[in-house]
Amino acid sequence: MMDAKTRKNVLARLRRIEGQVKGIQRMIDEEKYCVDVILQIAAAQAALAKSGKIVLGAHIQTCVVSALSSGSEAERQTKIDELLEVFDRYGSIKER
Q1: For residue 96, is it within any domain?
Q2: Does this model's pTM top 0.85?
Q3: Which of 5, 42, 51, 76 is the most exposed place for a label (fewest CB within 10 A)?
Q4: Residues 34-56, buried b or exposed e (16+ Cβ, 10 A)?
Q5: What is the CATH number of the domain that holds 72?
Q6: DSSP of 7-67, one letter per residue?
Q7: Which residues have a Cβ under 8 Å from the Cβ of 18 and sit 6 or more positions away?
């Protein structure tokens, strides 16, 4: 689990992203220029990617380190497999 400071940081970021998404919805409703909408979508995607990196870092520092240092062989392998799946699935996300 992530510590209180990290959790607070991630939640604050997600609230800002929620505001960004609402702003994008408003832009669509108001028929704003398409390029401006696309740029705001890209900004929201980058913010989500950064949030994901923070959560992943917390996971590695807590759950993975714990499993690798004190867990059983099966538990260690499970954490390694989870990380490989995360990297495979989300490895192509680029931060701006």
Answers
A1: no
A2: no
A3: 5
A4: eeebeebeeebbebbebbeebbe
A5: 1.20.58.1000
A6: HHHHHHHHHHHHHHHHHHHHHHHTT--HHHHHHHHHHHHHHHHHHHHHHHHHHIIIIIHHH
A7: none
